[in-house]
Design a protein that fits this description.
The radius of gyration is 13 Å and the shape is globular. It has helices spanning 29-35, 82-85, 89-92, 117-125, and strands at residues 8-9, 14-19, 22-27, 38-42, 49-50, 55-61, 65-69, 74-79, 101-105. 19% of the residues lie in helices and 35% in strands. The strands form two sheets. Strands 1-2-3-9-8-5 form a six-stranded antiparallel sheet. The chain has a three-stranded antiparallel sheet with strand order 4-6-7. Strand 6 (55-61) and strand 7 (65-69) form a beta hairpin. The longest helix has 9 residues, at 117-125. It has a single domain, classed as Beta Barrel (OB fold (Dihydrolipoamide Acetyltransferase, E2P)), CATH 2.40.50.
Length: 126
């Protein structure tokens, strides 16, 4: 399983890459494997400012529909439009082409509350 060590993670299996005051968010390799074949993503929060842990969208797989949660507070500034036509990119390349949203952070200190790679490995390995 691929768990890049240059990212932060949440207990909900999202990854976060920091790019200045913007974070790029997606779901981890573990999450996409657990979900199975992803068939649809819905993000209707573009332009909205949401608090950490609020729902920013949903991810639909063949087996289930799951909410996706904000890893940090801020404004949802971009959705990966490629996922509208090819949601399976999340399965094929969860840390690259399968990224989901970009958030302009309102409280960068919240990054300190996220999991590093070792803590995330402990979470998924029990």
């Amino acid at each position: 399983m691929n768990i890049p060590d240059n990212l932060k993670y949440t207990k909900e299996h999202e990854w976060i890459r920091v790019e200045g005051d913007v974070v790029v968010v997606g779901v981890s390799d573990f999450a996409q494997g657990e979900l199975g074949d992803i068939v649809f993503l819905e993000v209707e929060t573009i332009g909205e400012t949401l608090e950490k842990e609020e729902v920013f969208g949903t991810i639909e797989a063949v087996k289930t529909v799951s909410d996706m949660f904000m890893p940090v507070s801020g404004e949802v500034i971009e959705f990966n439009e490629a996922l509208a036509d090819t949601p399976e990119l999340v399965n094929k390349d969860p840390y690259g082409e399968g990224w989901m949203i970009k958030i302009k952070m309102s409280n960068p200190a919240e990054l300190d509350e996220l999991l590093d790679v070792e803590a995330y490995k402990e979470l998924i390995n029990g």
